[in-house]
Design brief:
single chain; alpha/beta; Rossmann fold; 2 domains; 7-stranded parallel β-sheet; 14 strands
């Protein structure tokens, strides 16, 4: 039977009250599929894109389980690991909203900011800790934090976690946890290395899969522009002359490229800002807030921010650089298809990126419509029933750079 509303999930009344305050009356598919298993104490392996309500799918049942008891200072009872600062902050914001009436507290710790305020927050005995692996390990090494009271572990965006080179850090963190715990792993894609990690962390998990990549990208109007690298900026400025591009997220491959492109757009008269790993956390928060409020029309970002940008009504996502990891394409364009809505995604492809384009089309099993003539050396669109290509792994150098950014 299809779940009609949250009351049928048998969540605690203070959580239902918070959901009503947030105007959430019906669970999304991932919430309806995962929450009953989590409430039953099962480990869960979930496949779900960002924007499908995944955060509430694990926060609500964890809060239900933790209600009625207290945590000790520096010893949280639930640990949620996230790959980026933005995603950690986003989860913490949701935890505050859902926990407002149930008497549970939460805090987030991540790099890019001073440690003092975060350590002070830990001393106030939060029930739920949201953390990026690097900062969490710093506190563990300083013996400023204990994880022996953790009863619930969540690994969110596991595929991104592995892409960023966090797998060793995750294993070191898990070594501090009690063996008797409930573990949940969520991932937008489920490659073999994520399944292997799930085999290490989860015990006899229930597997739930909602909104795979093929469904998400089907809601988005996708096009590819074949253009030489030197002409990309001019094409972007021309496209931005259309007022229908009112809230635009532009992805570049490198931090330097994001900073430079945002400055070039500003000089061209387009309100722009950038968010990338080299920027201090205060600057990243400020840029994201300006984009969310509409004071900035274009936000240029690297993939380090792709999973943590939860901004409604993004009209267009533009891949200024084609990602060299095909799964990153799905995560990028998902910024414009939030909560079941549609969107527009355009990609700029130069000659050196043609193989990356082929890999994306194979993964999504969706041929990208050409906005202009395909060059003779461009790959033809793949058949919709083509088998996905093998997942390409980023170079270790990129892992180190991205890990430092988190």
């Amino acid at each position: 039977m299809t779940t009609v509303n949250f009351n049928e999930l048998r969540l605690a009344e203070p959580l239902l009250r918070a959901l009503r305050a947030e105007a959430h009356d019906k669970p999304t598919p991932i919430q309806a599929a995962a929450i009953p298993h989590i409430l039953a104490g099962k480990d869960v392996l979930g496949t779900a894109q960002t924007g499908t309500g995944k955060t509430a799918a694990f926060l609500l049942p964890i809060m239900h389980a933790l209600a009625g008891s207290r945590s000790r200072p520096n010893a949280p009872r639930a640990l949620i690991l996230a790959p980026t600062r933005e995603l950690a902050a986003q989860i913490a914001e949701r935890a505050g909203a859902y926990g407002r009436f149930i008497g549970l507290t939460s805090t987030a710790v991540f790099g890019g900011v001073k440690e003092g305020a975060q350590l002070a927050a830990l001393s106030r005995a939060p029930d739920i800790l949201i953390a990026t692996p690097g900062r969490l390990l710093d506190f563990l090494n300083q013996r400023r934090l204990r994880l022996d009271a953790v009863t619930h572990l969540v690994l969110d965006e596991a595929d991104r976690m592995l892409d960023m080179g966090f797998v060793r850090d995750v294993r070191r963190i898990v070594a501090h946890l009690p063996k008797s715990r409930q573990s949940l792993l969520f991932s937008a894609t489920m490659p073999k290395d994520v399944l292997a990690l799930a085999g290490e962390l989860l015990r006899d998990p229930v597997r739930v899969a909602v909104a795979p990549a093929e469904i998400v990208v089907a809601r988005i109007d996708q096009k590819v522009f074949f253009v030489e690298a030197a002409a990309k900026r001019g094409l972007l400025v021309k496209l931005l002359q259309d007022p229908r591009l009112s809230r635009v997220l532009v992805f570049t491959r490198t931090k330097h490229g994001a900073k430079r492109l945002a400055m070039q757009l500003e000089k061209a008269g387009v309100e722009s800002d950038a968010i990338h790993g080299d920027r201090p956390q205060s600057g990243r928060v400020k840029a994201l807030a300006a984009f969310r409020s509409g004071n900035v029309r274009v936000l240029v970002a690297t993939d380090v921010a792709a999973r943590g940008i939860d901004v409604p009504d993004v009209t267009h996502v533009i891949n200024f650089d084609i990602p060299n990891v095909p799964e990153a394409y799905v995560h990028r364009i998902g910024r414009t298809a939030r909560a079941g809505a549609g969107g527009v995604a355009w990609s700029f492809c130069d000659g050196a990126e043609l193989e990356n384009l082929r890999q994306i089309e194979r993964l999504t099993r969706t041929p990208l419509a050409a906005a202009n003539a395909r060059p003779s050396q461009a790959p033809a669109p793949v058949r919709e029933n083509a088998r996905p290509a093998r997942r390409r792994t980023p170079r270790k150098r990129g892992w180190r750079e991205t890990r430092a950014a988190a």
